[in-house]
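Follow-up to my post from last week.
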Amino acid sequence: MSETRSSDVDAALHNLEPSGEHLEFSSRTPIWVQVVKWGLILLTLAVLGWMAQQVIEAGYWIMVSLIGFIALCVIAVYATRRAIPAKYLFPGVLLMLLLQIWPLLYTVQISFTNFGDGHISTKEEAVASIVANSVREVEGSSRYALNIAVPEGTDVATGDLAYLLTDAEGTYYVGTLEGLEELPAEGVEASPTGRIISAPGWTTLTPQQVNERSDDLADFGVPVFDESGEQTAGIRQVGLSEAFIGTPTRVYDEEADTITDTVTGTVYVAEDANFVPEGGEGAALPQGWREFVGFENYTNAFTNATLREGLTKVFVWNVFFAAFTVVATFLLGMAIALLMNDERLKGKGLYRSILILPYALPIYVTALVWASMFNQDFGLINNLFGLDINWLGNAWWARVAVLITNLWLGFPYWFIVCTGALQAIPSDVKEAAAIDGAGAFATVRRVIMPLLLVAVGPLMIASFAFNFNNFGLIWLLTEGGPFVGGQSSIGSTDLLITLAYRLALGGASPNFGFASAISVVIFFLVATISYFGFTRTAALEDVN
Amino acid sequence: MTTAASSPLLEQRRAGDLTTVRRRTMKRTTGAVAITSAAALLLSACGGDSGEETADAGSSAEETAAEDDAAAEDEAAEDEEAAGDDAASTEAPVRDENAELVIWSDDVRAPILTEWAEQFGEEYGITTQVQVATDVRQQFKDAANVDQGPDIVVGAHDWLGEFVQNGIVEPVQMSSDTQELFTEESIEATQFDGQIYGVPYATESLGLIRNTALAPDAPATMEELASFGNELVDAGDADQAFVTPVSNVGDAYHAYPYLSAYGGGIFGKNEDGGWDPDNVIVGSEETIQGGEKIAWMAEEGLLNVNVDFPTMESLFAEGRTPYMVAGPWAIPNVEGAEIDYAIDPIPDFEDGGQTVPFLGVQMFYVASGAQNPTLAQEFVNTYVPTEEMQLALFEAGQRPPALKSALETVAAEDDDIQAWADAGEGATPMPNIPAMNAVWQPLGQATSDIVGGADPAERLEAAQEEIVSNIGR
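User reply:
Got it. Predicted complex:
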């Protein structure tokens, strides 16, 4: 007896001890897992390497170092045995950084610059563009027929470029960086238009070869000198077969940092990221450059007369619009979901598909259809009900129209969500409520609603944040209008985001810096409201 | 190319819509393209059998080879589908690294351009590619910004100021002989800061489109138009005496002919003949006089804030109004509805006010960041100014060509084109300075308010202030 017992105990003890098999399993991963793991790591590194190469080509060095850092992290986390929690956290954190934090930081960074139309390039590029675009044909000069060539015996890809030119009289020339020289007509073969096809001592380039030397040709021009030996102009190509005598009419003086217009004599000085005429009279040169402007966009946003006047009005409507939409669409969606949840109802699938339609159709279509239905004279709604309401022309009716449309657009979302959430509520709580003597309304009010709200609370905050910035609906339906009181800056149905859009992009030139500054302000508004929203939903969860 | 290539009337109308909508509210988002395409889709869907008609008209205009009805119907289906696809995809094209000459254009012109680009490629021994951009203006700006843009861009002349400002287009050194080949207004439109920046190929402007069944004769004056139109309304033959887009937010493009009738307008000119952004004349006496005419037209029931572009199109297509002021982009819909129509210049006012519409010019730009500038310059300087190419592009867009000889050839064969050319004669090229972006909304809203009963002088002066402050921003 004791023997058997001790052997039983031994067996049990033996079972408790880690067996060799188990040890082997935990210490050595199967070979295929290793292969897959290293395969994935290498693949990730390869993708990162490819990305780095692309970014290097584009010349964004900060991005390159960022990619390098990510690659190091991948190796450190996955190629070693340490940091097990990080293995799980890393992808999520990385995606959050890339998709949430990076755009946010980028927006903030832009909000401190004057980035926008006319202020996109660097100052060097702007100057180059101003000078290049000012090249004009010398008055009274005639054109040359052109071919492009390199000296015979040199490589077409590297040889010194030359223009083979034919002037209006039919005289042949060779133009190099040194100047123009007559070309003996002997042995020259020309087309009927006078263009030189071949000339002894020169190898003409095919269009493709010309193309490959675009960069060299961009800097190429044949100087033209006056009697005193001073350069007055240059011969430049127009395409492949024509050349003209031109001269830049705007010249950059690097030391003084000014541009002089040689025709009018106006001197332009650099000011506020543009070249403006010295003395302030007249228009600035169109090309400006991007620069850091500090808090200027923010001060502009807060001192802008339009924004200051309209902000309170728009903000109140904005909050009301978002809150009303969430509550109304939720209530309607939930009511329909409750009705559709009844077991006695037949053909639920069909009804449900039909009800989801408004959600499934693109808003670009439906919002425009609604806009035409709200037309006072020719719209369906007034015609159908025999009304004469100025839906889109009266401030209050326009707001009603927006709310109706958004209710129609938004309820299917809550219908779907509530249908799902209702099915997750166990039937026994409902039965328990019925046994306790609760009527249908009381069951919904006291049992189903609280359970439902726990599930959909966070979604309501998401919906609020979405509708707070529901640009598409407003822009498609009313464009923020109607505009009352003889102005076109603040519309009656404007949300902050549509107002900001019009302000930032409705000027002469879209100003992304200003737009970013306003976006950042709106971000903080929505973040604050959402924070309090989440604190409230945390209270809801106490039901459990 | 895309499948939308074959018979582009739907797209054409959409392109028309697009231009108009953009002019009005300068929508910049790519979303706007989806919006307008969706709107075009809707219109065609609501128009019942107009889809088929459109395709029929399309084949007659587009295809050299006659096709049987069944084929045309198949195409109608395909077109709708293709238009749908386009509506969904507003992604910018990506430059093909292997092509040596890359052209971006809208989907209406792309098929024609492809043929010519290929011919150019064969002649010069290079590879070419024509890519469709859904929102050429914005997509080119974005792509050129990161040096991924095309070599040539095909688009409207009023984008020019923006392009120059961003340094993404380069001048075209057109010889004076070549300049002579084009109509004066079209060359004027290609200039900015005294420099020519492109080669034009088509012009477009507003004209009076008349339902000949309701109004057999062209009205000599606006007053005549108003009284005849209102007689029809009183007799119950029409619902509206006249239609043109107004809408609740206004439409400065369509209001301009009346605003400028007495010498007013938007900008004054500077010494070298360009538009001067520092001289806004919206609140000037002359413009206010035009604004008073708008108020009068509203009193007569000609202008109505509840008429916007789609409403206008359907009212005219249903034969509920005798007159419509619109551009060539409105014609496919009229033809689709089988309305007999005639095109005339917009009538003048009895007291001598001359209605002057805006002239829009379509042109070829050369990108300054072009990877292959030589070939791009060669193409626009040698191919675009040819009569053959201008005629081919006319087939795609049905707009009067900018090249004089091509215009003569087309006008001799097509009364409509002669009529459009007449309607556009003396038209003012739409200002191509960036400051124009700051004008559309305030001026549009002002005209809408005047139609709604606001005092023209007060309202236009307020708009002037808004515009000046917008430009200064």
